[in-house]
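Please fill in the sequence for the structure shown.

STRUCTURE ENCODING:
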């Protein structure tokens, strides 16, 4: 039994992925047996002994139990309840899966049938040897800033509305009207992929022409981000053709297309990638299964190669708690060995009246994604984009957005329409 356990001090620095799980069990259940069964079942074993397992294989490929912590920590038999919560940390040999997110997830989340564990993955700690194998973001925050030519303030992103149903020519008209305002990036909505009525390459050509017309009038260079989400083979081909047509960034719904597809995309093209969370909620909504939101929305897109990543907040209507939201942003931004930081993209109900809250919570290294608040501005899309910029400039200058709205008609009208707080 002792061979199945290791202390943190002897495991750290070795080639193990440290995966931490939370599970609940009857108070009288043998949690150590459950933890060791999981460590074996997710590495070399099955529910029954089989021929062919050698001592060398056990040493090189078998998982180990590093920690088993009770929640709450109870030491007296008189204090136990009917069920007990546990945090279990398992050391998984990285030689078993390497820098492959699909295989890393298959190993760490596991097969509940074969291992008989209903647990939620809440944390992953990568050794340097594994982190070095991931390409991660090619551009990261600084690379995206260099692309748009803005070094200090939050960026303004718009997504074309309506979401779908527009031809390239119709979308280009909206793009042009929006690009006349103070927007830095314009992307497709996640619901518009590569349909017959609006092929990606046709959109790239039409929208870039619209961007150039707007640039002639404003002097600002707005970057278009087409959505290339599809099955892997078609996605990679579409992305290559979009870049060949002039696209300087692309978007992928990584949870729908797969984290491994995001990895392949990052290793295939040489432009920034915006990673959208569409389809990600089933990964983390379960209280006792799947993984935590900071992993699904933060760590994994970062490892996969996202340069920008949509972030769910508690303020857009979805019931995400504030702590997972802030931890997700930390997973995207905090320094990590060998992996560049990612630009968090705040989306969902963003308008000028929310800018101060997001900037105070997250700082200036964010992208503020406003769709309806720009296209739905009473004075048109250009005014909607200007209102977002005016709100950002006010906060950067230490001023109240409401006070700035009294001086700037576009901002003032936006505050009247959408409100002045989250």
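FILLED IN BY: designer on duty
SEQUENCE:
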């Amino acid at each position: 039994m002792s061979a199945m356990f290791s202390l943190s001090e002897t495991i750290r620095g070795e080639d193990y992925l440290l995966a931490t799980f939370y599970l609940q069990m009857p108070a009288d259940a043998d949690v150590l047996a459950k933890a060791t069964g999981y460590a074996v079942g997710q590495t070399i074993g099955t529910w029954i002994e089989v021929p062919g397992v050698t001592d060398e294989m056990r040493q090189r490929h078998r998982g180990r139990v590093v920690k088993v912590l009770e929640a709450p920590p109870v030491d007296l038999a008189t204090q136990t309840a009917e069920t007990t919560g546990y945090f279990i940390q398992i050391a998984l040999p990285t030689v078993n899966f390497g820098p492959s997110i699909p295989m890393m997830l298959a190993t760490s989340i596991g097969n509940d049938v074969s291992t008989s564990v209903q647990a939620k993955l809440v944390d992953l700690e990568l050794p340097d040897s594994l982190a070095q194998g991931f390409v991660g973001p090619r551009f990261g925050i600084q690379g995206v800033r260099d692309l748009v030519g803005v070094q200090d303030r939050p960026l303004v992103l718009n997504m074309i509305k309506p979401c779908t149903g527009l031809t390239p020519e119709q979308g280009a008209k909206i793009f042009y009207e929006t690009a006349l305002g103070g927007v830095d990036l314009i992307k497709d909505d996640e619901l518009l992929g590569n349909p017959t009525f609006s092929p990606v390459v046709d959109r790239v050509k039409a929208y870039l022409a619209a961007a150039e017309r707007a640039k002639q009038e404003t002097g600002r260079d707005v970057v278009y981000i087409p959505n290339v989400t599809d099955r892997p083979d078609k996605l990679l081909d579409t992305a290559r053709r979009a870049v060949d047509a002039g696209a300087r960034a692309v978007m992928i719904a990584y949870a729908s297309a797969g984290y491994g597809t995001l990895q392949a995309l990052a290793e295939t093209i040489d432009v920034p990638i915006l990673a959208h969370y569409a389809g990600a909620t089933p990964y983390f909504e379960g209280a006792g299964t799947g993984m935590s939101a900071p992993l699904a929305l933060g760590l994994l897109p970062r490892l996969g190669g996202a340069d920008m990543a949509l972030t769910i907040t508690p303020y857009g209507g979805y019931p995400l708690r504030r702590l997972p939201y802030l931890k997700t942003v930390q997973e995207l931004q905090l320094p990590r060995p060998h992996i560049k930081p990612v630009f968090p993209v705040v989306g969902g109900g963003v308008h000028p009246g929310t800018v101060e809250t997001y900037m105070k919570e997250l700082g200036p290294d964010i992208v503020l994604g406003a769709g309806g608040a720009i296209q739905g501005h009473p004075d048109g899309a250009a005014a909607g984009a200007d209102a977002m910029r005016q709100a950002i400039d006010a906060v950067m200058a230490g001023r109240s957005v409401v006070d700035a709205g009294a001086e700037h008609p576009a901002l003032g009208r936006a505050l009247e329409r959408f409100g002045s707080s989250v």
